Amino acid sequence: MAKISSKAKTILYPMPAVLVGSMIKGKPNFMTVAWCGIASHEPPAITLGLQKKRYTLWGILEYREFSVNIPPSTLVEKVDFCGLYSGREQDKSNLFKVFFGKLKNAPLIEECPINLGCVLLKLIDLGSHDLVIAEIKEVLVDENCMENQNIDPYKVDPLIYLTSIRKYSKIGSIVADAFEVGKIKKQ
Amino acid sequence: MAKISSKAKTILYPMPAVLVGSMIKGKPNFMTVAWCGIASHEPPAITLGLQKKRYTLWGILEYREFSVNIPPSTLVEKVDFCGLYSGREQDKSNLFKVFFGKLKNAPLIEECPINLGCVLLKLIDLGSHDLVIAEIKEVLVDENCMENQNIDPYKVDPLIYLTSIRKYSKIGSIVADAFEVGKIKKQ
Question: Measured between alpha carbons, how far is residue A101 from residues A21, A69, A98, A153 in Å?
């Protein structure tokens, strides 16, 4: 297969499309983030790559708490809206039904079936972006997305951000069981 | 909607399932990683959350280079195999067709339609895991996954790792155009 070399850029499939909630000047604000990944098991930690000028970064630095909310695909218009417009110019505090869990400065979104309450651990300066590393302190899941005490991702119906073609998609069909399909078969 | 509170844990949808390639003791080794995210635009940077005991971490620390390879869904058995067995006990150097790009210590996988060559920037100790932050120095893409000089993610056909139900899936149908569907409609 011929391989085409392109300039170094941020390519990864899939990327999530999550709503990051923070308090800024006493009001909830929400921003869409695709540059989000899991970092550690103990403490359970998550990363966000945020451009230095982001309004959300102010809130995270001020309160040292924030939320990561996993939106269902039906919320796509509001998800895109939160990626297009900064809280500096656009009040997003009434866009969702907001509630609070254990963390009093991490606004959670009622309409999102999964909500993570996070506390800032470290901020790493990487150049154009700061990498936020945070401990996940709380996980809330909609009751009707649970199946046998386990989260059913198809009931969550999360969005995927497809970079390069700049589209949102759903998760697709199951391919195989993890930690199973690759097992060496004993003779 | 009733929300169920669970203990703090690493929940994120979707997560990728990529193959991380490194040289260890002069031989290529490959490990499956779901805890991978984008961190920064300039420099283009990527993160990996790796358990401290991982063999791959030795290789990354020794050579300060590694690869991130995005496997197609047809490679699921080998992807799972690389997540199940450590390079300490299982020689994985002949599992794939290996080639090298610009980085002489970042083994790339021919069968994976997207290959990233990466150079270690920082290693952050988070407790159970180290967070590897690396600069993406090179991107290689299979010619037949390109469409109008753009990567077509459906031709790439990447795997998604679905945590909690521990399954791999494909990407699903398109929901909407990003940076478009949420635009405020001018009257």
Answer: 13, 13, 10, 22
Residue B4 to residue A140, Cβ atoms within 8 A? yes
In a 13 Å sphere around the CA of A103, the CA atoms on its Cβ side amount to 27
Q: What is the pLDDT along chain B (187 residues), one digit of tens a residue?
A: 799 998 899 999 999 999 999 999 999 999 999 999 999 999 999 999 999 999 999 999 999 999 999 999 999 999 999 999 999 999 999 999 999 999 999 999 999 999 999 999 999 999 999 999 999 999 999 999 999 989 999 999 999 999 999 999 999 999 999 999 999 977 6
Q: What is this structure's pTM? A: 0.97
ipTM of the complex: 0.97
Size of interface A-B (CB pairs under 8 A): 371
DSSP state of B11: -
C-alpha span between A105 and A28 (Å, rounded):
9
- Cite the DSSP H helix spans in B37-131: 55-63, 76-84
**What is the CB-side half-sphere exposure of residue A91 using CA atoms within 13 A?**
5
Nearest to A11 among B79, B116, B143 (CB): B116
Contact list, A40 vs chain B (CB under 8 Å): 10, 49, 126-129, 131
